Amino acid sequence: MILTLLDELLLFSGATLLVALFLGRGLTAGWMVTILYGGQLLALLKMATLGYGRGTISSMLSFEVMGQTLSWRFDALSWFFALITIGSALLSSWFSCGAWERSFIRQGGNIWLFHTAMALNVFTMLILLASGDLLSLFIGWELVSWAGFLLMALAGGVATKAAMRYITYAMAGGMAIFGGLALVYSASGSLQLEAVVMAVNQTSTTKLWLLVILFGGGFGIKMGLLPFHLWQAPAYAETPGPGSAFLGAISSRMGLFAILLVLVKLFGIVNIDNLKVPFTLIDARDLLAWLAVLTIILPTFTAMKQNDARHLLAWHGIGQGGYMLLGIVVADAMGGAGGLLHVFNHATYQAALFMAVTAVIYRTGTSDLNKLGGLVVRMPLSFMVLLIGIIGLAGLPPMNGFVSKWLVYRSLLNQGMPLLFLAAIIGTLGTILSVYKLIHNIFLGQLRVEHEHVAEAPWSMMIPMLILSAIIFITGLMPGIPLEWIASVLQTVGLPVPEYTLGGVESNSGSLDMIWVIGVLFAGFGIGAIVFYSAGRSKRVHQLDNYAGGHFLSADVRYQYSDNFYAGLMHLIGGWYRGSFLWLERSITSMIEFLSLGMQGLYRRANAEFYLLSTALFVIAWVVI
Amino acid sequence: MSAMELLIELTLMPLIAFIVGMMMVLMMRRIAAKLQRRIGPPFFQPLYDIVKLHSKKTQVSHGLIHDIGIVMAMGGYIAAETLLPVPGMNGIAEKGGIITLLYLMMIPSLGLALGVGQCANPNGSIGIARALTAMLAYDIPLVIVVFGVAFAAGTTNLIDIIAVQQAGGFETWGVTQMPLLAIAGLIAMHASLGKQPFEIYIAPAEIATGPMVEMGGKYLGGLFVMQCFQLYTTSVLYVSLFLGGGTTWFDFLLKSFLVLAIPVSIAYLFPRYRTEDLLRLMWKWPVMLGLIGIAFVFV
Amino acid sequence: MNASLVLTIALPLLGAFLLPILMRSSLAIGLWSGPAILIYGCWTIADVWLHGSTQPSSIAIGGFAPPMGINLYIDSLALLFAFAVQLLGLVFWPFTLDRDSARRQALMLLLVAASTGLALSGDLFNLYVFYELAAVATFGLATASGSSAAYVATLRYLILSGIGSVLTLFGIALIYGKTGTLNLAHLAQLAPDQLNDKLGLTAFLSILIGIGVKAELFPVNTWVPEIYATASTRLSAFLAGLLSKLALLIILRLLLLIFHQPEALQVIVVLGFLGVVSGELAAWRAKEMRRMLAFSSIGQLGVMFIAMALPDGKGVLAVLALAIHHLIIKSGLFMLAEDWGGAIQRLRGSAKTAPLGAALFVLFSLSLVGMPPLPGFWAKFTLITELAGQTEPLYLIGLAVFLLATVIEASYLFRVAAILYRNAPRDTLDEEIPKSEGLSLATATLFGVGLIGSAVLIAPVGDSLNSIAVQLQDIDLYISTVSPGSSQ
Predict the structure, then answer these.
(1) Residue (of A176, A169, A215) closest to A196 by Cα position
(2) Closest CA to A143 of C372, C287, C389
(3) For A62, phi and psi rounded to 5 degrees?
(4) pLDDT at A608
(5) 10 Å Cβ neighbour count for A341?
(6) B50: alpha, beta or left, given left = phi > 0 and alpha = psi -120 to 50?
(7) Is residue A152 within 8 Å of A169, Cβ to Cβ?
(8) Distance from CA of A617 to the nearest CA of C (A)
(9) Residue among B74, B97, B130 whose CB faces A531 most closely
(10) From CA C398, how far away is CA C382, in angstroms rounded?
(11) Which stretches of chain A score pLDDT less than 50?
(12) Tens digit of pLDDT for each residue in A369-419?
């Protein structure tokens, strides 16, 4: 019995869970768990060959149950997602140690449950990522869903409500996958990964459609694909701070992982492309691509209307998922790389953003965008982290989000998809608007009187945030580092690989070299700074020493623009927010309510014997006649 | 190309842009003066303005971000110029391409937005909200246009896009190949300059409700420099996309000034649109033209 | 040695009649004789199971060989259920001591005897007799609480059950009239020739609906919510957990041995389908824990009916797995519900006062909705792989309905879980929050341990279930066991 590297990793992860479970009551528990996450990361790095080439590492664990063989293994795809998972868990857990933990306990939170839920999430995600056949994939999938439920629900109150909504959606998704699984099994008699390929080759078009819908829908629910996105934002936003950073970074990407594994690697993009919608020019792939861009646009513009920082970020999390799917569905070298790189990039900046917002909540007690403002003078480092994060989120140079979005745009341009391209850009523009509102309403503008004595976030929270910011910048400067891993992932799932360099990609239809771009950008900033600072010295004035149309400003005057931030825009598009999906969700709920009422009425009827007799007679008559 | 040559190019390109940009500001003012039957400012007036603003005694800062915002506003354009080929100099255009250029051009707006935000004046913030909305308005047709051009040329590399147009003289210029896109591009470009009738967010006439409300001295000076760059970048980008770039400096500058003269002349004949009307206008005509134009590109 | 199995029916039966007398003479002996009988029954069956061969056997009663005499048929399934009956009889034994306890304990013994008989019986008429006996015992037990609601509920149950019996008898009469025998093995021999027609079908459907009353078959299950909500939870647990499964398995055995008409399967699948839909939907709005469990049980039984209706006995394994799984889960859940009566909303904060109970509830719910790697997942897995393999649209619709019903099920079960883990309203005293303790919690824990145990040992459990299913489907084996020498 020799333990493979994968076994080591899983054992380490399991040990983390046990430590959190049994020693999680004390205040040092957070640090212990964090160190163990570090150990997991090391164990993962020992497998780094996976990220740099082909090959798989299997676990010696294998079961035979009810005639099905269950096995687990890691390849480049699993490794890449595992890296993000453990990395974000490590930093989120680090963030939660110390100061945040104490305030969480003060507010009546159960820190033991929190650490346990986090460790459970990581453990189950690793199991999912390691799945070596469809059955273990499904088992991992369900485990991840329920672990996520635990983390979302533990805050109680509103969070539990959101988590309940989540679990209904997740259950629906799980059952769709379950159904798909059954179809594959019935077509090929096996649940090994190759079975999907066999099933695809053998079954009719109708069943293929069914498979794509079941798998696509099931996995799509997890990643908040339209029209199944409603659960995600409240569920992630209401999770306790570091938990939402972790969930926002990686949780819904599990859906993307499964799509990559099942629909892209096994099913094959070509086969999806071959599924035509009757009587139209579009096929299943177009359908997916359009779902992806709708997922970009609608949640992004919903995010713009949020007045709570956490909800705003969570809505963006849904929207950014659309870019990843879009890139992967386009499936050329640039698109695939862009989609996957965005997974990594999104994890980094989303975690940083949630942490920065949590730091603000920690100091001020609120994330209501109408109750904050001007905090940059009190929390400059948090401001910096948030700024770096939003630049990444909006996809502007010099942060990493730009590179991945650039790749997705390029793939759409290369493939000649103007409308998708336009839609993707609209999403980006909407993001810029929305994140400016975020940073403006929290950090810019007028500092409120009650925040006069707010201090910078404590170092226990600051260090992980700064590490994340560094990662955001460095991978923006040198996207070649993650691109190398992504190249092996692309190889594993059978997509073309772009020619990448340390600074970006090479292509004869237009290259990108971020080292140069960022170099000139900072040189430009330098020259600008020289020009600016060589001019006369400026005098720092108090924020109340301000133009107010002839009035005197005093500390009790609220001199800040935060509510209805894009009034002009909303004049035009405000009426387009119809809440149709909400309406749809509600109408389904009330339909079930109604049916439920009817069924209860059926059982409440007193003259049951009448039913018995009439059924008996009816059935017999039906059969005999 | 040796490192030294590249360094010289990278220094020269923004410098030329700055000088040409100042001349463009001058042209704009002269045109306005002509239309309003005034004499107009002297040749060096833009330079005087910049020097004056930077050397003012009273410089009011609202904090570090206020300063950094101005630095970003200038620096973003300085960097953008190196991605924009001019006759004889390509800079690092092939390492970025047109999409990168478009995004670099957003950085100054972001810098301005941050700087204004720090001023703690709601009037400024309202101006920024309007400016970002306007960006949403004009970027959509602009993106359609860029897509059309890049797709027709089969590349995002600006050098190649220019080379393709210069290959067959006037017949292969973007404006003859894709006239609809060229028109849409012109409208979008006009809006992106923030001139009348699309100047609600700057609103120089009512300074109290715009981004400039807390800007004075070198802050305003920095923004003035930014405007020089902006005029230059926009017109040169248009020339590169539709008018075949420039083979010599003479025709390059001629085209650039002529292109800029169109929106500027129109600007002073019009009053102003409200934000939502700006959105409505931008999302209707240029988008429609652009999409039809793209359809032609595909055919 | 196998003959001692007769005692597992006879002793409880005898006990049931003697117990009131015993109680009067000596309370101690009276109190302990019931459990003692059951323990003996468990031990006997376990002994047969462990030492006997895996081959089925038949015991002729009274020295007459079948088909003339009556016989007990003993195969793995029969043993398993007989064992479950005795064990659950013990677990749900009405220990409470009051004026009525003699009557209740006697009735419980009667119920156990009848149920064991149902599990072991090898001919139709005996099945009918035991079935009636079980019904009578149930009526008595259901009214034991003495509340008027219980009487009303029982009255409804009585009427339904009575008509059901008549229908069953009608079906049996039809069969007897046609074939002249009621022995199952003999019938299995004759069926392809004589019962493969409309008459046979009519007979089967009559029996189906008649026995379906106990198996919670739609639409003759309207007694379920009322009885489960008003009778003692122990009885409800026994009925929902075990008796319904016994009835179901009788139908399954009849279906496999005698009735092979495709129409029969269609009727079952449609009724099962309606049962799932109506049960799960009704449970969604249930405001009371027991009622919710009752509706959910209707839904689950519907699922088993769908599984049963798969052609060529493909669903047998799934039916067995689902039935045994549901047996454990529902018994456990009803035991938890014993302390958690009344409105569900009242349970807020229970997780604090009863952490183990709440945790068990979550465990059972997770398994019920099929969360891997709990056994419920494997049970559902066996079902859906078979369902998806069918080409008939009816089964695919069944699959879709089943999956949707699971979503609804998860939604209402976890709504309760969320309520359990919510903080109690501010002004509630700790005493007002329902606790979960004592015997019922211990019993539920027992089921929880059993569930986890089978999750760990899922591979051997799966294998043995599979062998039971194979044995169950082997008609020739059945015939040759009961009447050696004759073959089909």
Answers:
(1) A215
(2) C372
(3) -160, 140
(4) 63
(5) 28
(6) alpha
(7) no
(8) 9
(9) B74
(10) 14
(11) none
(12) 998 888 999 999 999 999 999 999 999 988 999 999 999 999 998 888 888
Question: Which other chains touch chain C, taking contact as 3+ CB pairs less than 8 Å apart?
Answer: A
Chain C residues in contact with A592 by the CB 8 A cut-off are 281, 284, 408
What number of C-beta contacts closer than 8 Å exist between A and B?
Answer: 260
- Of the residues A127, A600, A604, A625, the best mutation for testing chain C's interface (the one with the most C CB atoms within 10 Å of its CB) is A600
pTM for the whole thing? 0.91
Spatial separation of the C-alpha atoms in residues C356 and B72, rounded to whole Å: 60
- Predicted local confidence at residue C97, as pLDDT: 66
Residue A427 pLDDT: 93
Using the Cβ of A181 and the Cβ atoms of chain C, whether some distance falls under 8 Å is answered with yes
Write the burial class of residue C24 (CB in 10 Å: 0-12 exposed, 13-18 middle, 19+ buried): exposed
Q: Is B6 exposed, middle or buried (0-12, 13-18, 19+ CB in 10 A)?
A: middle
Task: Name the residue of chain A whose CA is nearest to B155's CA.
Answer: A509
Rounded to whole angstroms, how far apart are CA atoms C99 and A572?
Answer: 79
- For A582, residues 6+ apart whose C-beta sits below 8 A from its C-beta are A230
The helix (run of H) or strand (run of E) holding residue A73 is strand A68-74
Query: Which tens digits make up the pLDDT trace of B131-142?
Result: 899 888 899 999
Q: Are C33 and C109 in contact (CB under 8 A)?
A: no
The percentage of chain A sitting over the pLDDT mark of 90, rounded to a whole number, equals 41
- Count of other CB atoms within 10 angstroms of residue C312: 9
Give the range among A239-253, C188-202, C286-300 with minimum mean pLDDT.
C188-202
Helix (H, G, I), strand (E, B) or coil at C59: strand
The pLDDT of residue C487: 44
Q: What is the pLDDT of residue C488?
A: 40
Distance between CA atoms of residues C146 and C230, nearest Å: 10
A139 touches chain B (CB under 8 A): no
Report the greatest alpha carbon distance in chain A.
Answer: 104
Q: What are phi and psi of B171, to 5 degrees?
A: -65, -30
Which one of C414, C458, C463 would you mutate to disrupt binding with A, by most A Cβ within 10 Å of its Cβ? C414
State whether A139 and C373 contact (CB < 8 Å): yes
8 Å CB contact between C414 and A167? yes
Q: For residue range B10-50, what is the model confidence (pLDDT) as tens digits?
A: 899 999 999 999 999 999 999 888 888 888 899 999 999 99
Burial of B288 (0-12, 13-18, 19+ CB in 10 A): middle
Strand pairing of A504-506 and A499-501?
Answer: antiparallel
Partner B contacted by A444 (CB < 8 A)? yes
Tell if the CB–CB gap between A513 and B92 is shorter than 8 Å. yes
Neighbours of A287 (CB within 10 A): 18
Q: Which long-range contacts (CB under 8 A, 24 or more apart) does C414-418 make?
A: C414/A164, C414/A167, C414/C365, C415/A164, C415/C344, C416/C289, C416/C292, C416/C344, C416/C347, C416/C361, C416/C365, C417/C358, C417/C361, C417/C362, C417/C365, C418/A153, C418/A160, C418/A163, C418/A164
A596 and C377 within 8 Å at the Cβ level: the answer is: no
Chains A and B touch (3+ CB pairs under 8 A): yes
Structure tokens at A611: 């039913």
Q: From chain A, pick out residues whose CB is under 8 angstroms from the CB of B55.
A: 535-536
pLDDT at C430: 63
Query: Is the minimum CB–CB distance between A446 and chain B shorter than 8 Å?
Result: yes
Q: How far is C2 from chain A (nearest CA, A)?
A: 31
Residue-averaged pLDDT of chain C: 81
Picking from A331, A376, C218, A500, the residue whose alpha carbon sits closest to that of residue B117 is: A376
Q: With an 8 Å Cβ cutoff, is A159 touching chain C?
A: no
Contact C38, C89 (CB under 8 A): yes
Cβ-contact B261, B118 below 8 angstroms: no
Residue of C407, C408, C421, C456 for testing the chain A interface, max A β-carbons within 10 Å? C407
